[in-house]
Amino acid sequence: MIDETLLLQRVKAGDRTAFDSLVDRYHREIYFLALRFMKNAEDAEDITQQAFLRAFEKIDSFRGDAAFNTWLYRVTVNLCNTRLRSRKETAELNENTRDERSQDDSPSAGIIKQEAASAASAAVESLPEKQRLAVSLRVFNELSYREIGEIIGCSEQTAKVNFHYGMENLRKKMKQNGTM
User: Fold this and answer.
1) DSSP state of 177
2) What averages of pLDDT result for each successive group of 10 residues across the chain (180 residues)?
């Protein structure tokens, strides 16, 4: 097996076959990471392709501060989060439209529900990045602390600490906002 550092140097020099070797090496891992997020094979494959395309396009921005696979995981997680956020916004829009059409629901109940969801989302988004990722990956994607550590570039124990403090900060923010 060719050394990853050499492959990366060749890719940065424009060698597409070297990039194909990286794709072969990491395709399975990236696909299953995306599958854990997206929960269906078609979306996971689409995200996997986008991740490798993005990696190829942005390979010059890879500094080597972390392992290539960690950088690639991060690209994948960002793509998954963007897709999931887009879906959530679409679902909320559809739900709001449905709520507006429903005469059984009171208008105030829909507004309260929407405000609570917005407050929770804002509270999660306001967390420091590693805490936000740890909470999101653990709660919404049910990943293990080991997997979270690999994705955010830290140890399993540090992932646990980030999750713990993230949840603690989230509770505080929700209490401050009066949503808990």
Assistant:
1) T
2) 87 93 94 87 95 93 83 90 79 57 55 67 79 83 82 90 92 77
Q: Is the CA virtual torsion 35, 39, 44, 50 positive or negative?
A: negative
Is residue 74 located within the same domain as residue 10? yes
Specify whether the CB–CB gap between 154 and 136 falls below 8 A: no
At 129, which amino acid appears?
Answer: E
- HSE on the CB side for 51, CA within 13 Å? 34
Residue 98 located in a structural domain: no
In a domain, residue 30? The reply is yes
Residues 6+ apart with CB under 8 A from 130: 152, 154, 162
* Sequence-ordered list of residues with C-beta below 8 angstroms from that of 180, at least 6 positions apart, any chain: 171, 174
Q: Is residue 149 located within the same domain as residue 74?
A: no
**Residues 81, 11 share a domain:** yes
Domain hosting 127: range is: 116-180
**Scanning the structure block, which residue is given the tokens 């494959």?**
45
